[in-house]
Amino acid sequence: MSTPMRTRASRAVAAAAAASLLLPAAAAVAAPQQGPGPSSEHHGGTYLAATLAGRATLSADYLAEGPPSGAAASPGNGRQGPWDGQVIPGFSAMVDNHDGTFWAQPDNGFGAKGNSADFLLRNYLVRPQWNTGSKGSGAIKVLDFVEYNDRNDVLDFDIVNEDTDARLLTGADFDIESLVRAADGTFWVGEEFGPFLLHFDEDGTLLEAPYEFPDGKSPGNPYLEPGEQPNVGSSRGFEAMASSGRYLYPVVEGALADDADVRRRWIYQFDTRRGEYTGKRWAYQTDQQVNVIGDAFATGRDTMLLIERDDFEGDQAVTKRVYEIDLGRKDRDGFVKKELVVDALRIANPRGIDKGEGYGLGETFSLPVQSFETVLFVDRDTLLIGNDNNYPGNDARVTGTPDDTEIALVDLRKKRVTDDGVTVVGHRGASGYRPEHTLAAYETAINQCADYIEPDVVSTKDGVLVARHENEISGTTDVAAHPEFADRRTTKTIDGTSITGWFTEDFTLAELRTLRAKERLPQVRPQNVAFDGLYLVPTLDEVLDLARNSRTCDGAPVGVYPETKHPTYFDSIGLSLEEPLVRELGLGGFDRADAPVIVQSFEVGNLQDLDDMTDVRLGQLISSSGAPYDFVADGDPRTYADMVTKSGLREIASYADGIGAEKNVLIPRKADGTLGAPSAVIRDAHRVGLEVHTWTFRRENQFMSAEFRSSTDPNGIGDLVAEIRVFMKAGLDGFFTDNPDLGVAAVS
Q1: Global pTM value
Q2: At what angle do helices 740-747 and 720-729 cross, to 10 degrees?
Q3: Which of 435, 434, 431, 433 is nearest to 517 (CA)?
Q4: pLDDT, tens digit, 9 for 90 and up, residues 56-94
Q5: Crossing angle (nearest 10°) for helices 578-587 and 605-613
Q6: Which residues have a Cβ under 8 Å from the Cβ of 515 and sit 6 or more positions away?
Q7: Lesser CB count within 10 Å: N end or C end of the chain?
Q8: Long-range pairs for 286-291 at CB < 8 Å and ≥24 separation?
């Protein structure tokens, strides 16, 4: 993002505020000081860097005054209700009062109607005492609260406190999630049991009947007719809501049940003057199908921030992001354009705020909580983000200890994009730390400062490209544990080799989505087994979207380095890889010469075909033995060794932009397993205009040359940084590594 975008957004917010009856939280006083505006361009080579400016917490075990709560709550992390007071289970939404205080609204308490009848729905007035690294206690002070109630008997269905004068509302009546304050001081609340829009006065009294969602009901809706099928998933209603002028923009948290596109989330428009939905709605696409929308905040008349998150916590977390969208701009698929504002899993913490106090509290600050549900601008350069801690179940920070309620200030400053000239490729993602070819592995690689992520692509039965190391998936998924697919196990000949197992081309994408990824090398990487069974097999489309919506640590767009696997074989069964690959690149906006994309293959013919089909860069993969399979299939006697001669490299340069050579091709090993002298391949390739990348650097001893091993244990950790530096000294342009953090350290 760049300065022109931010200036445009500030002007839009100022204009909106001047004419509004209903204001987004920060706009009420500080409208001209709003945040960055959306754009797909990055003028002047700049981006917004996120830095932790302050943090404040409220103890998970804090109890506000009131009757006991949590009698039916699920126990967790050593806590068992009922508790002698009202639990505050985090904040699902906040409003800035611009005097150092905030209105902070928890949700329905303990997650369901059946266990939240003793939880009173409230809106708390709080004052954070920010820990900035040099001052501030870091505590959140609870000053006051308003209790939501129906003392005017507006509701026409029974509530828990039906027969009391105060008619206080509870978590069994509504699941409140989002919050907007109007210019007249009243509160608009989005909830999930309806889902409904609720309008309360400044003292918390319900002013009018709930406004019903026009496109369906949730399972908790009190008006659900017998036999009527809910269209909104349980707890997937109005988690998020923004406002601009007279309009509210509630966002459905998950996909609607009848929507064929499981990545689509709908943004609606509600007119507060007329008290009705306008009929307008906009489609937003999540990075992957399991992601949900956590909060929204208006930055202009047509622009807003959205939290997109997954349901994982701690080191399992993949997506905890804030995007900015523009309702006036759509992408090629008809979704609103979105641009990353901050990845909440990667925020610089140079002041060391709360460093060492839990997972994600270090030199890099991370908000790895399951329910990242609060975002707003407190001034033009500073975001506030926060969590719902689902007390007592979440323990993202310290295993076995319930998460505190926490809010953080994130400073956004313009920085210039830099380039160190070396391409670090996350091999199958950061596969040394997460199961390969999962979005978790790719996100980890990005957060470890990789320049590119590498998906190997194969096809499903219905022609969808997915990321797997091989089309045989018994080693990378739990397919063998699915009895419904037992009859799919078969033996095939792939590139001349007989292989028995389960193959992607025998599964539709829908069937493949029922599987979960697992670690391919559990003996080598036992720590990765902890992530088995968590993650979906991603499509190439999802990998491209992740890259397109991400930034490297240097601020550049994240690149994608797809490898077409077994193209001759897939051609032979009528599932050619090249056409759908080029189509996906085009739909994602990557099909151009300057795109951060390199398509690679061990075969030659398909790269030559791709050279005529696309303008993106191409890379010829080179092994230290054997030959391209299409050569073998055609009876061509040339080998990989022939391809790295001077004449062979000239031939490669006629259709490709670089080579990706096995390490031993560039620096052969001597008889004792140590590195010898560099070959002439790097020099000769450079002379014909080819870049040279190599594969694959891994930190385990068995994958390293002898002088860099730490012991005779094949799975012990060697000196990968030192090994990479030898190759860099030989003139290498880039490399693939399972451990991007160590790769970046080697070139720093």
Answers
A1: 0.92
A2: 50
A3: 435
A4: 999 999 999 999 999 999 999 999 999 999 999 999 999
A5: 40
A6: 473, 477, 478, 479, 482, 536, 537
A7: C
A8: 287/263, 287/319, 287/321, 287/439, 287/542, 287/545, 287/546, 287/549, 288/263, 288/318, 288/319, 288/439, 288/536, 288/538, 288/542, 288/546, 289/255, 289/262, 289/263, 289/513, 289/536, 290/536, 291/263, 291/319
Token pair recorded at residue 63: 């109890």
User: Two tokens at 602?
Assistant: 């061990």
Bridge pairing between strands 140-147 and 617-622:
unpaired
Task: State whether residue 725 is helix, strand or coil.
Answer: helix
| DSSP character at residue 74 | P
Cis amide prior to 637 (ω within 30 degrees): no
Between helix 540-548 and helix 578-587 the angle, nearest 10°, is 30
Tell me the pLDDT of the chain averaged across its residues.
Answer: 93
Neighbours of 75 (CB within 10 A): 11
Q: What per-residue confidence (pLDDT) applies to 10?
A: 33
Percent of the chain at pLDDT > 70 equals 94
| Among candidate residues 209, 205, 232, 208, the one with its CA nearest the CA of residue 221 | 232
Burial 663-700 (b: 16+ CB within 10 A, else e): bbbbbeeeeeeebeebbebbebbeeeebbbbbbbbbbb
Strand order, beta sheet including 93-96: 93-96, 102-105, 122-128, 140-147
The residue among 30, 13, 93 whose CA lies nearest residue 385 is 93
CA distance 623 to 632: 14
What is the length of the chain? 748
The pLDDT tens digits for 664-709 are 999 999 999 999 999 999 999 999 999 999 999 999 999 999 999 9
Q: Which helix (H) or strand (E) holds 471?
A: none
- C-alpha span between 190 and 218 (Å, rounded): 13
Is the CB of residue 30 less than 8 Å from the CB of residue 379? yes
Q: For residues 178 and 176, give the distance between their C-alpha atoms in angstroms, rounded to a whole number.
A: 6
Largest CA distance in the chain: 91
242: three-class secondary structure by DSSP? strand
Q: How far is Cα 191 from Cα 168, in angstroms, rounded to an integer? A: 16
Structure tokens at 556: 């550049």
- If phi over 0 gives left and psi between -120 and 50 gives alpha, with beta otherwise, what is residue 96? beta
Cβ distance 736 to 696 under 8 Å? yes
DSSP 378-394: EETTEEEEEEE-TTTT-
Q: CA of 602: how far to CAs of 182, 390, 495, 696, in Å?
A: 61, 49, 11, 15
Please state, in angstroms and rounded to a whole number, the distance separating the CA atoms of residues 500 and 485.
14
pLDDT in tens, 605-615: 999 999 999 99
Q: Is 432 helix (H, G, I), strand (E, B) or coil?
A: coil
Look up residue 115 and give its DSSP letter.
Answer: G
Structure tokens at 721: 């940084």
Cα gap 168→402, rounded to integer Å: 28
Shortest CA distance to 606 belongs to which of 543, 662, 574, 563? 563
User: DSSP secondary-structure letter at 730?
Assistant: T
Phi, psi for 348 (deg, rounded to 5):
-60, 145
Identify whether the C-beta of residue 207 lies closer than 8 Å to the C-beta of residue 150.
no
